[in-house]
Amino acid sequence: MKRRLKSLSLVLLAFLLSGCVKMNMTLDVSGNGKVKTSVRMLASTDTLKTSGIQESTFTQDLKKQFTKNNKDVSAHVIKEKHDGKQYVGVEASNAMSSSIKAIVKNGRVQVTIPMKTFTSALTDNNITTETLNNFNMNEESLKKNGVEMKLVFNMPDKAKSNVGEVKGNKVTVDLLHEILKTDAKVENIVVSSKTGKTFDAKTLFLIIGGITLIIAIILYALKKTRKEQK
Questions:
Q1: Which residues contact 130 (CB under 8 A, 6 or more apart)?
Q2: Each residue of 106-147: pLDDT tens digit?
Q3: Which residue from 123, 111, 180 is spatially nearest to 149, judged by alpha carbons?
Q4: How distant is the alpha carbon of residue 88 from its chain centre?
Q5: Cα dist. 224→77, 104, 220, 230 in Å?
Q6: May I ask which residue range the UniProt record assigns to the signal sequence (predicted)?
Q7: What percent of the chain clears pLDDT 70, i.e. is strictly above it?
C-alpha cells in the first residue's frame, strides 16, 4: 500500500505547488471487515496547460499508476467543474482494497492507517511545512489555489475517530491539514464503529410475518366493527 500511495503522491507532488489539484479517497467499510476503496485524483486543465502536459498523457499516466500489477483495479477518466474551473483526472475502484484491512473484534470494526502512508512521499522529497513557507505557501494558500486532499470513511454504524469530522457513520479527514499542521500530529488515523446488523433472509421473513399479522388484526377489527354497526 505504501509503495502504491507513494507513487500516486509523487504524481500529486508535480502539481502541488502550482495548485488546483484534488485527491479524494473513499473507504467503504462493511461490518465483516471488508474494505472497498475509491480514489479520485484531478488536476485543473489550466494547471496542465501551464505545466506543458497534455490531458491524455496525465490521465494515462495516472491509470497506469493505479492499475500497475493489479488486475482487480478499475480506472476511468473523469472530468468535473469546481469553482468554475475545469478539472480532469482518474477515478479508480479497488485500487487499494487488498492493502487496507479492518479488524473485527467484540462487535466492532476498526481501520487503522499510519499517517506516514500519506506523508512519506512528501517528506522524502523535502516537501515540508518549512519548504512550503520558503515558497510563501501554507495550508490556507494551497486551499485557496484549489488544492484538496481528503480521506472519507463510510462505516457500517455510528463512527468514532481520533481525527477529522464525524457525522453519523461518515468520517472525513482533511489530509492536507493533518500533513501540514504544526501542532501535535497523530501517528495513526483510527476509525471504528459497531459492526451493525446484517439483513438476512430470516430477518426478512420475520418482518413479512409481522406485517401479515398486523394486517390480519386490522381486517379482523374492521370486520367486527361493521358487524356491531349493523
A1: none
A2: 999 999 998 887 777 666 656 666 767 776 778 888 888 888
A3: 180
A4: 19
A5: 65, 53, 6, 10
A6: 1-23
A7: 71
Angle between helices 116-124 and 2-16 (to 10 degrees): 50
Q: How far is CA 101 from the centre of its chain?
A: 14
Please give the C-alpha separations between residue 50 and each of 37, 84, 144, in angstroms, as whole numbers.
31, 18, 18
| pLDDT, tens digit (0-9, with 9 covering 90-100), for 67-93 | 877 778 899 999 999 888 999 999 999
Do residues 47 and 18 touch, judged by C-beta distance below 8 A? yes
Can you read off the three cell numbers belonging to residue 111?
Answer: 481501520
119-124 LR contacts (CB < 8 Å, sep 24+): 119/179, 120/2, 120/6, 120/9, 121/5, 121/6, 121/9, 121/10, 121/13, 122/9, 122/13, 122/179, 124/6
What does the longest C-alpha to C-alpha distance in the chain come to? 92
Residue type, 53: I
Cα-based distances in Å from 206 to 133, 199, 210, 211, 213: 62, 11, 6, 9, 10
β-bridge partners, 160:
192
DSSP string for residues in 27-41: EEE-TTS-EEEEEEE
Q: Are 186 and 178 in contact (CB under 8 A)?
A: yes
Cell of 146: 484549489
Please check whether residue 57 is in contact with residue 72, taking contact to mean a CB–CB distance below 8 angstroms.
no
How far is it, in rounded angstroms, from Cα 139 to Cα 133?
A: 10
pTM: 0.77
